[in-house]
Predict the 3D structure of the following.
Amino acid sequence: MRAFDVIRAWGRILAGQRPSLSIEVTRECPLRCPGCYAYGPNHLGGGTTLRELSDFKGQRLVDGVLDVVNRYRPLHLSLVGGDPLVRYRELETLVPVLIRRGIHVQIVTSAFRALPAAWARTKNLNVAVSIDGLPAENNVRRPPATYERILENIAGQHVTVHCTITGQMMKQDRYLERFLQFWSPRAEIRRIWFSIFTPQEGDDVPEMLTRQERRRVVSELLDLRQRYPKLDMRKGVIEAFNAPPSSPDQCVFAQTTQTISADLRTSIQPCQFGGQPDCASCGCFASMGCAAVANHRLFGWLPIGPIFWASRRFGQASPFRTAVPEPAVEFRILQ
Ligand code: SF4
Ligand code: SF4
């Protein structure tokens, strides 16, 4: 992140706003991944689930997303789902408009279909392709986004590979290194990120890691980052897995990111996972990245965390706090 971006983000926090926005642009996804949080019963707070929510298509979706962006004025925007590539035509229209506005855009997808060719040349766009392990796991967990399809669909692109580490992976030998050995040498891969599976409170599922497995993830990644330059995770980010935020109130990522669901109205709380995420077991890469920034000391002595929390308190209490306006467009539900 450039100094200019940090200053802009700080300005938003002082104004009581969140500099980062995430929009679930569609409720649809052709995959049925075990452990998917987006389709969990409590993702939207209980009652309605994402699959039951009304969403948008075509020009209505384009207008609706731009309206949300106009109201929240983010510096960084993640377009997620469902799988946002279900609405690839709308994204082809939206992405250049958003980039021209100076917004950093991230699209998180399974790459179940081919990425638009123009995205390979688009600056300030990050396409993060979620791949859950080596073919033996991914191809069972994430059809139709199998290795064969992903490789075909990212040809000529420059993407970020994002893998969520599960308990099943950590019960196998050198799994993370074997994953890096497969993806690192490929020209289409710009960098590689790992998250750790984040359960909801009370979950007991095979994707969860034991404490010992989690510690092993940290020590393996600290070693691997020195040998695989495309593993784009700083030491402080990896070490943050050892001490996740104790609650959403203590989570810089949750406090700086607003998540809106596919009806373009529902706010997902307390973070992108929705429901009641088990913060003590959080493995979200973005949350660890924010925690690492907060733990950093400017010039070696000035801690960023206290400055952030003081700025946030100031912004929340400020009489000049900018409220988010109500939706400007009249939405028509198409399905
Ligand atoms: S691709 Fe993502 S949204 Fe779709 S089922 Fe898998 S985890 Fe859920
Ligand atoms: S689950 Fe993770 S990202 Fe969500 S609020 Fe807790 S620590 Fe933050």
User: Anything to note?
Assistant: Residues 198, 244-245, 248, 251, 253-254, 270-271, 273, 277, 279, 282, 284, 287 surround iron/sulfur cluster (ligand 2) (CB under 6 Å). The chain has one domain: 3-317. Confidence is low (pLDDT under 50) at residues 331-335.
